[in-house]
Amino acid sequence: MSKARNLWRVKLNTASIVLIPAAVAINYIGKLFAEALKLPLWLDSIGTIFAGIVGGPVLGALSGLINNIIYGLTLSPASAVYGIASIGIGVASGVLAHYGMVSKLWKVIVFGIIVALVSSIISVPLNYVYYGGQTGNIWGDAAFAFLNAHHVNVILSSFVDNILVDAPDKVVSAIVAFAVYRVLPKRLTILFDNSQETTTLD
Predict the structure, then answer these.
(1) Is residue 17 in a domain?
(2) pTM
């Protein structure tokens, strides 16, 4: 079986089933932490990125989607719509990890930037539809207001708004997820090894 096909395989075992709620819990805690300290970050994708690194793009996508559905039911109804962006984050994380982008710190930083770009490209149209282009983050929205006042295109202004927060957020989130991944015992991470014949979600 090719390396590309192995990428989309999923081991349907206890570890995989436990990974998703664990990732959602990490996201939830990160978001509450960022809001409590009023950080210029969201920190609500650490678990999704971690799930993508450990379990691959399918488990990463499922973690992100379920995460946003729970957000939508408990914190903000609009969060459910952004599940599309979280799916993108999970898929991108799994693909990048599969191709060796979590082996060194500099690669993890590039990993975070790429994930931020994916997230922003998906989120900007949603921001435009639901919030007139703004993100709801005071730091990013300040840039949006400045650009808007200088007659910069609203989509470009929205992208700048989003990426200004998304880039540092996803880099920090990727580094945290990577640090957790590195300290996990090999006997645990091998449970997610999709290079062997197993149940698939094709």
Answers:
(1) yes
(2) 0.91
